[in-house]
Amino acid sequence: MRILLAEDDPVSRANVDAMVRRLGHESLTANDGAEAWRLFRAERPTVLISDWEMPGLTGLELCRRVRESGPSAEDYTYFILLTVKDQRSEVIAAMRAGVDDHLPKPTRIEQIEARLIVAERVTRLHQELGRRRAALETTNDRLNDLAHRDQLTGLGNRLGLAQEISLLDAPGGHAQPRFSLALIDVDRFKQYNDRHGHPAGDRLLAEVGRCIRSQVRSTDRPYRYGGDEFLIAYLDEPGVSAALAVERLRSRIEAATACPSLPEPATVTIGLASAEPGERFDVVIARADAALYREKRRRAP
Length: 301
What we know:
By secondary structure, this protein is α/β, with parallel strands linked by helices. 52% of the residues lie in helices and 18% in strands. The protein is built from 10 helices and 9 strands.
């Protein structure tokens, strides 16, 4: 283990340092509490052995700084106080301040060895807890992503959209002052499925999802709205810019679906609506839906 020793008495410092090294540990030494604090921040030792009484920064004050520095669980530093004090009340007060253990002065190598055995067990436990916590956080992030993502298209699903709606409708949320919604519908998708089968239909939807992901900005929010319908929330996007974006997307989808992996190319119809300041999501999506059906009627043969 890497051990930092803070001791202002040169004889005591040399003796403890020699015993720590004899036990097979790496030792760093500091002449006082201030130097120990600088070394602690630079080196993050596994164990810190500090004299109680030192000029400037005492051992107890050093311990409080170490605990207040808030390292992660896996970087926990085991703190041992060197002291001639033997009153139980003083030792208990030190433990409450964050000290893990204490050593009498003068000390023997057997006493140091016993404390360091315990220190190694405790710090290893902290490291294991830190690893498990990190693994749990990673798993939770993956589960959260799965819960909010449509697995066929890679876009957000209705659960993710519900959360976005709560943000859009919140006072001071994205709806203040503007956003645009685009509803995208794959034309004649039922007939496509009937002609080519559901696996081909799934491949088409996956390709549409890939096109949408490739065209949106990091601030945009794309979702599979349901079946063959998709929705994109263009945040802080005026209507004219959103209209240009959906036209680029329309062309991209029609070009990308004309590929050997799909039996025939597909087209999409898009309805766009831009929110007025303070306008709720349900009002804007209703206008986008109306725009979608107006566009379908206009394009009908």
